[in-house]
Amino acid sequence: MTSATSTEQAIELELQSVSKSYGKNLAVKSITASIPQGKVSVIVGPSGCGKSTLLRIISGLDFPTQGSVTFNGAPVRGVPEGLAMVFQDYSRSLFPWMRVDRNIGFPLRHISADERRQRVQEAIDAVGLKGKEKLYPWQMSGGMQQRAAIARALASHPKLLLMDEPYASVDAQTRADLEDLLLDIHATLGVTVLVVTHDIDESIYLADHVIALSAPPSVVAETVEVDLPRPRNQISTKQDPRFVELRAHVTSLLRSH
Amino acid sequence: MSTLYKARGKEAAAGTVPRAPKKGFNGKRLLLRLLVPAILVGVWWALSASPSTGLFIANPLKAVLRIGQDFLSTDPSTFFLGKATYEHLLPSLGRAMAGLGLATAAGVAAGIALGSLPVAAALFQPLIHLGRSLPSPALLGVFFLLFGTGDAPKIFLIAFGVVWPILFNTIDGVNSIGHQRLQAATVFKIRPFDVLFHVILPGASPKIFAGLRTSLSLSLIIMIISELQKSKNGLGYLLVTTQRTFDYTNFWAILIVLGFLGVTLNFLFHIAERRVLAWHRGATQQHD
After folding, report:
1. Any chain A CB within 8 A of the CB of B193?
2. In chain B, which residue ranges form alpha helices assigned H by DSSP?
3. PANTHER family under this entry (chain A) (predicted)?
């Protein structure tokens, strides 16, 4: 039942005592963590604990004040190859002047038109947006827009998929659907996934391991291995006594720090 | 930008772009709208018939007939357009559009540069405020000195006068695109060329169009002013000469032509804007 220990895993992404301060304000304090290849890792922490800052640093959009980030063995300077991101607010990260298929294919302008079309179609099928290709994002519900944003990330065939509070702006039912969609995609594609969220239930439901952050200045409170079986299910997994136990544990981690 | 919107007509026909519900023909509304113009024409007619003011105010019907005589013709080889159209209307319009085109190119380019680089915006802000605050007709003499008396000083004066709304709105538009969209462009490694033409330009286009609308009207105003002096043709030139020769029928005919020109240009602009910004109308309707 226990998953493979992290020492046997290939490491995709490594954070070495990363800290970030804005002036005198220390947002992130010395974070060290390893994200194993092909697994779902979730960073969970209270609001304002610097989760999004951390994700920006990992994606090369921002730089740490101290420490280093290594992706596939190379230090991150600028946005690395093989990384894709799903932003928190789909309505502000999709391009409202492009139809869904163009939004998804736009980052692929460097590859041939045929291959691009094929990749866009695969991504659209993967997120269940078949038939919506010619709609504009604003003609779709929030959940569908976030699916389009996920498809855009998948179409670039990333090694590492970063998600910044991806389901924070959708309703509960849509959220559950999108969580299952992510688990499906992960099971099919085997891509390394790193999600940032403040939702403890979500973190455990999705993750192979949960990196719990303390309140700012943030440190890693504990990395919790989630040994729940896959495939997971919104009802049975969440009723599993182990799930309840892990949830209590992570909750206490976030409280005590 | 053109490839982006090329297929719009066809796809819009497929019904994916929501349209405003069509209003049926409403006779009452039409009557209401025609009421004020009808009264104005009536007052005009009365004033033209009065002995005290009739000297300067031409009969509206005569003015309209004069337009037919001067600006239109029955000759198919000139596309049914008269001498005055070729000698005065089209040169005027050409200069206004050349000035507007120049201002659009310069205003959008500078606006994108200043909108993307806060340092540049801070550096040039005093200069921009000075330029905007200068009443451009006052510079006519300077432009004559610099560029002679041909079309060039007029075109540059129009461009100088109308560039400001375009510039300010473009800066505003670039700032309205949103941090996350630009971050998304960075994360997905969109090439700078594509960021410029497929993210920044379309993202700023609603504001750019708002600026263009103001500049279009302004370009006609400055067009007339630029033709009042040292001119050999143009509608502004005609306005001056007809007054000097007491040809008031012609003078009023030109005013009507100018009104018609303004309305037509605004209408064409409106159609272009509806096509290019179809996505924006939909997106804002959605969020309201």
Report:
1. no
2. 2-5, 8-13, 27-49, 60-71, 83-84, 90-116, 118-133, 140-147, 151-175, 179-187, 192-194, 201-226, 235-244, 248-276, 278-287
3. ALIPHATIC SULFONATES IMPORT ATP-BINDING PROTEIN SSUB, TAURINE IMPORT ATP-BINDING PROTEIN-RELATED
Per the domain annotation, does B86 fall within a domain? no
Q: CB contact, 8 Å: B121 with chain A?
A: no
B3 touching A, CB under 8 A?
A: no
User: How would residue B251 be classed by pLDDT, with cut points 50, 70 and 90?
Assistant: very high
Number of domains in chain B: 1
| B107 and chain A in contact, CB less than 8 A | no
Distance, CA of B89 to CA of B257 (rounded, Å): 9
Greatest Cα pair distance, chain B, in angstroms, is: 76
Token pair 């719990």 is found at: A212
Q: Could you tell me the residue range of the domain that residue A71 belongs to?
A: 11-82+158-256
Count CB atoms within 10 A of the CB of residue A188. Answer: 9
Domain that holds residue B101: 95-228+253-287
Q: Find the CATH number of the domain harbouring A50.
A: 3.40.50.300
Supply the pLDDT for residue B202. Answer: 96
Q: How many residues does chain B have?
A: 288
Contact across the interface for A106 and B190, Cβ inside 8 Å: yes
User: CB-based contact (8 Å) between A85 and chain B?
Assistant: yes
Q: How close does chain A come to B192, measured CA to CA in Å? A: 12
On whether residue B208 sits in a domain, the answer given is yes
Q: Are residues A174 and A236 in the same domain?
A: yes
Residue A142 pLDDT > 60 = yes
Residues 126-165 of A with CB under 8 A from B: 134-136, 138-139, 152, 156
B259 touches chain A (CB under 8 A): no
Query: For A28-69, how does the pLDDT look when each residue is reduced to its tens digit (9 = 90+)?
Result: 888 999 999 999 999 998 887 888 889 999 999 999 999 999
Task: Give B128-175 pLDDT, tens digit per residue.
Answer: 999 999 998 899 889 999 998 889 999 999 999 999 999 999 999 999
| Most B-contacting residue of A53, A86, A97 (CB-CB within 10 A), to test interface | A97
- Point out the domain boundary residue: A104, A131, A157: A157
- The CATH number of the domain holding residue B198 is 1.10.3720.10
- What is the least distance, in Å, from the CA of B190 to any CA of chain A? 6
Mutate to test the interface with A, among B16, B175, B180, B288 (most CBs of A within 10 A): B180
Question: Which tokens sit at A213?
Answer: 């952050």
Tens-place pLDDT, residues A97-113: 999 999 999 999 889 99
Domain count within chain A: 2
CA pair distance B177, B102, nearest whole angstrom: 25
